[in-house]
Amino acid sequence: MALKERLDADLKTAMREKDTLKLSVVRMLKSAVKYREIELMKPLDDAGVQGVIASEIKRRRDSVEQYRAGNRQDLVDKEEAEIRILQAWLPAQLTEDELRAKVDAAVQATGAQGPKDMGAVMKALLPEVQGRAEGKAVSDMVKARLAGK
């Protein structure tokens, strides 16, 4: 089932079950997908929808940091619950060990020697881990690997 169809089905299920949190998250996500489609002037495929989901998760993680700094645990809990709901539509995330193995393979494949080769490694690695690992985590791991840590 396509991701947009799954969102529609999950919307109906959340309505039936009166799950207000999931309902609001699905509605927000459908709105964000529609906005991105209007922006690009073409319908999104599954990869595009996953990109929207990933950006919504990133937005919520940033909010969690701000709410923690403001000592608002109630809002932190709400945002973290939304993150868990959003992650259900993404493919299974890579573990740290799996990601490290992919980073090592990309470094060897590109022949990277140091930090100046980070762009080449990221270019080779991102298509392979897209949607299965957060960009910042990938970037940090590549940076550490190329720095020799």
UniProtKB/TrEMBL annotation:
> Which Gene Ontology MF annotations are present?
carbon-nitrogen ligase activity, with glutamine as amido-N-donor
The protein's organism comes out as: Anaeromyxobacter dehalogenans (strain 2CP-C)
Question: Record's superkingdom?
Answer: Bacteria
Q: Name one Pfam family in it.
A: YqeY
List the top taxonomic levels of the source: Bacteria, Pseudomonadati, Myxococcota, Myxococcia, Myxococcales
> Which InterPro entries did the record assign?
Asn/Gln_tRNA_amidoTrase-B-like, GatB_Yqey_C_2, YqeY/Aim41, YqeY/Aim41_N
Please identify the protein, giving its name as recorded: GatB/Yqey
